[in-house]
Amino acid sequence: MTKDLIILGAPGAGKGTLAVDLCPRLGIKHISTGDLLREVIVSGSPLGQEINGYVKSGALVPDDLIGQMIKDTLNSADCKNGVLLDGFPRTIPQAEMLEKIMTDLGRPISAVFYLSVELDRVIRRLVNRVSCQKCGKPYHLINLPPKQSGVCDACGGALIQREDDKEETIRKRFATFIEKTQPLIDFYQKQNLLVEIKADDDPQKTLAVVLKYLAE
Ligand SMILES: [Zn+2]
């Protein structure tokens, strides 16, 4: 049976890791809307050209074009076993549009996995990430510290923290995520599709919960 899934999760919740582990096992396609937009634009199709017009002018791509893009993708051969939608829907109108698309295709959404995390744990994990300014080698100040503080083992370059990993940035992104995503969580909860997974610890544990749920 087709498995069409949605994944929701705050930045740092491990959505990417889960997608990489899960999709090959189920033979389904990971659809990240951002990647898909880029692919469609590169393809130069009439839809791609229309979307590119919006992207180039810095405008938001209208929902109906994104809907058309997702519908076309769902109809392609590599999505026939199912998909894991990542980054879509983001709003209630998009969720309603998706529901209509899936109903039209006879492929109702099987489940919506919400990877929930505690902000403090995300902060603890991310604020300790640094990388070499010169060669890009990643370090973690607790789990994988450099031999000499602030200096790259490989090339002697300075270790820096990415803007995205600063505590204030993490807090801001997290608050924005919750504010935007809560309506979707409520929407899918009402439809009995929401599966919340506490994704604070081990990615393998998250994967196990998802696989167990899908096997039931
Ligand atoms: Zn280096």
TrEMBL record:
**Gene Ontology CC:** cytoplasm
The UniProt entry, under Gene3D superfamilies, shows:
P-loop containing nucleotide triphosphate hydrolases (3.40.50.300)
Q: Which EC numbers does the record give?
A: 2.7.4.3
Annotated TM spans: none
The family database entries (PROSITE patterns) matched by this protein are listed as:
ADENYLATE_KINASE
Q: What are the GO MF terms of this UniProt record?
A: AMP kinase activity; ATP binding; zinc ion binding
Q: Which CDD domains match?
A: ADK (cd01428)
InterPro entries reported for this sequence: Adenyl_kin_sub (IPR006259), Adenylat/UMP-CMP_kin (IPR000850), Adenylat_kinase_CS (IPR033690), Adenylate_kinase_lid-dom (IPR007862), P-loop_NTPase (IPR027417)
Q: Name one Pfam family in it.
A: ADK
Annotated spans, LID: 128-165
Please give the superkingdom of this protein's source.
Bacteria
Note down the stretches annotated as region NMP.
32-61
Keyword Manganese set for record: no
Recorded catalytic reaction(s): these are:
AMP + ATP = 2 ADP
Q: Which UniProt keywords apply?
A: ATP-binding, Cytoplasm, Kinase, Metal-binding, Nucleotide biosynthesis, Nucleotide-binding, Transferase, Zinc
Query: Tell me, which GO biological process terms does this entry list?
Result: AMP salvage
Residues engaged in binding Zn(2+): C132, C135, C152, C155
Q: Where in the cell is it found?
A: Cytoplasm
Binding-site positions, ATP? G12, A13, G14, K15, G16, T17, R129, D201
Please list the residue ranges annotated as the Adenylate kinase active site lid domain. 129-164
Residues annotated to bind AMP: T33, R38, A59, L60, V61, G87, F88, P89, R90, Q94, R162, R173
Question: Quaternary state and partners of this protein?
Answer: Monomer.
The text of the family note is: Belongs to the adenylate kinase family.
What is this protein's function per UniProt? Catalyzes the reversible transfer of the terminal phosphate group between ATP and AMP. Plays an important role in cellular energy homeostasis and in adenine nucleotide metabolism.
Quote the record's domain comment.
Answer: Consists of three domains, a large central CORE domain and two small peripheral domains, NMPbind and LID, which undergo movements during catalysis. The LID domain closes over the site of phosphoryl transfer upon ATP binding. Assembling and dissambling the active center during each catalytic cycle provides an effective means to prevent ATP hydrolysis. Some bacteria have evolved a zinc-coordinating structure that stabilizes the LID domain.
Name of the protein this chain belongs to: Adenylate kinase
From which organism does this entry originate? Termititenax aidoneus
The gene name reads adk
